[in-house]
Amino acid sequence: MSQLFNFQLSVGSRVQLNGNLATIRFIGDIPNWPKNKAYGLEWDDPTRGKNDGQLDGVKYFSTLGGLNSGSFVKDTKIKKEMDESRSVFDALCYQYSADVDMEGTDDSYTEEDEFDVTIGTKKVQSFGFEKLSRFQSNYKNLDVVSLGRLAVHNEIGSQHLGQLLTNLKELNIDFSLIDDWSVIVDTVSQLPTLIKLNINGNRFTHVTKTIEASTHLVKLSMASCMMAYYPQPLLESMIGTFTNLKVLNLAGNHFTNLEKLSYPLLGLMNLVELDLSYNCFESMDELTSFRKLRSLRNLNLSNNTISIHAVNDFELPTVSWLDLSSNNVTTWDEIDLIATQFPKLKAIKLTHNPLFLKAESTNNAQEDDLNLIRIISKLPNITKLNGTEYSQDQRNNFELYFVNKMKDGSWSYPTNTMSWKLLATKYNLSAISPKATLQKKSNHITLRIVPDELESAQGFDQSIFPETTTAGKLRGKISRRWNLSVLNFQIYYKVNETLKERINNDQQLLESFDFRDGDMIYVKMEDWQV
C-alpha cells in the first residue's frame, strides 16, 4: 500500500478536497461558525467560489485577480473531505504497482529497503524474489508516467527514481499540490532520460534551495499555473532552470504583457515552439525582444484580445507558424501588418476574429471564399490557412482575382506595402497603383461559353473575343446565340474550384479580368440585376 502522509495546514497550503484543488488563504474564526474553525479557500476552479474573501462586509482574505473564487469551509469538512497527499514515489506505486499485489504485505514498500535485495531482507521476505523482480521490471518498461490529480505534495519519497524509471521519456504531474519549485527540479534531476514534463495546474510559491540549470529536458508545459502573480525572481528561476527547452507551454497564466517574461525567455536560445494562448495580451508590441530567439518557429497567441499595431523595427523573421485565432483583429490593415512583422510566415490561424465573424456566424460560403482570397493575397508566403493547405496554383488564382478587384475599385489596398509590391512584380503591373493593368501578350482571348444549370441551351465550345470587348457585348452575343433575353440570365466566371463571381458591370472590359485562353464563362438563368 502506498505510504500516505499528512502535513500541517497553514495559510498558503495547497489542499485537495474530493478531487478539487484549492489554496488556503485564511484560518481563523468567523461569526457565522462560533464553534468551528473556518478555512478560507481559493479554488483553482473559480466556478466553485462564492466570494472574493469577503463575508458580511468583512474582508478576511484576497483572491488572485479579485476573482470570486473563494469560499469558507468548516474545519470538520476539511478533515472529512481532504484527500490524503502523496509523495512522488507513493503516487508512482499507487498508479503502477497494482499487479504486484503490494496490499498483502506486512509493511509498506519504503525507502529503507527499496533496493536491498539480499536474502533475508525485509523486502524480499515481504515480496519474494518473483514479486520484487516483477515490481522493478514493470517500472523499467515505462516510457510515460502520469501522476496527475493524485494529490502529490512537496515530497519525492525516493532517491532512486532514475534506477526504477530507466526508460522514462514523459512525466505528467499536473494539477497536484506541489508548490515548491525545488521538488520539480530534484525530480527531473533523478530522471536523466526524461525529455517531456507536464506540470499544468500547479501553484508554485517558493524555491527552498539553489537551483542548478538542467539541460536534458526538451518539452515543458506549465499552463494554468497563475504565473502572472509570481514574484519576478521565482518566475526567472523557473523558466531559467531548463536551458535546453525546445517547446514551452505558458497558456492560461493570466499574463497581460510580456514584460515579466521577456528576460527569462531570452535565455532559451534553442526554443522552437512557444504557447502563450489563453492569456490577457492586448497587443504584440512587446514581442520585439523575441527577435533574439533565433530558433523560434511556432508561436501560439490564440484566445487573447490582441489587436495588431504598427511598431517600429518589429519583425520576427524566424516565425513560420502563427495562431491568432480568437483575438481582436478588426481591419484588413492589421493583416497587412502581419505580412511585415512576420515575413517568413508559412501558416496562420485567424478564425473567430471580429473581421471574419460575419461570414462565420452566417455560414456564408461566398464571403468566406472572398476572405480567403484576400488573406492569401496579402500574406505572400502562406501555404496553410486555418489548417487547410493551398497549392501554388490556387495562390495564383487567388492573387489574380485580388488584382482584378483592385483594378476595378471593388477593394482598396495600400500600394506601399511589401505584399502589394510583390504582386506588382509578379504580375508585371505597369505601375504600382490599383488602376494598373496587366501586360498581355495578345489582343484577343479565347473563351468557352457554357450553360450553368441551363439544360435547353447548347453552349459553343470556343469563341475569340477582342480584349476590349465589354461584358455588355459579351452578354449580347450570348443572347443572340441562345435566343435569350438579356434580362433573363446572368454570366459568371470561376475564381477557384468552389467560387464563381458574377459579372455585373456591362462596361467592364474582358482584359480587366485577366482571362486566359480556354477559360469558361457560365450562363445562369436568373433575372438580370446590377
UniProtKB/TrEMBL annotation:
The keyword rRNA processing does not apply. Gene3D superfamilies: CAP Gly-rich-like domain, Phosphatidylinositol 3-kinase Catalytic Subunit, Chain A, domain 1, Ribonuclease Inhibitor. Residues 40-74 form the CAP-Gly domain. GO terms for cellular component: cytoplasm. The keyword Signal does not apply. Coiled coil: none annotated. Keywords: Chaperone, Leucine-rich repeat, Repeat. This is CAP-Gly domain-containing protein. It comes from [Candida] arabinofermentans NRRL YB-2248.
